[in-house]
Write a structure and sequence with these properties.
By secondary structure, the protein is an all-alpha fold. The protein has four helices and no strands. The chain has helices at 3-10, 25-32, 36-51, 64-83. 10% of the residues are buried.
Length: 84
């Protein structure tokens, strides 16, 4: 993982910091350099961190449709930040 993004994640102390609108500029700059598939994976990781509530028998409790919808919304929010 990218060192800037890794450091950001290591210092997150509230889930709202993972929202696209709250990402630091240096994290956005690193995200803009990523290949599409790498960026998609990172968006998916951020969504899982924000919304998933693991259970005793499942690490990922979100269903695929919910995950895809949230990742799509996250990507649109990122595009707004990239263009803004």
């Amino acid at each position: 993982m990218n060192l800037i993004i890794e450091n950001f994640l290591a210092n997150v102390n509230s889930l709202h910091q993972l929202q696209a609108k709250n990402l630091p500029d240096e994290v956005l700059e690193e995200m803009m350099k990523m290949e599409a598939n790498e960026l998609y994976k990172l968006c998916t990781q951020f969504i899982v961190l924000q919304h998933n509530v693991p259970s005793e028998d499942k690490m990922i409790t979100m269903d695929e449709d919910e995950l895809l919808t949230l990742v799509d919304e996250y990507a649109k929010d990122l595009l707004k930040r990239f263009r803004g």
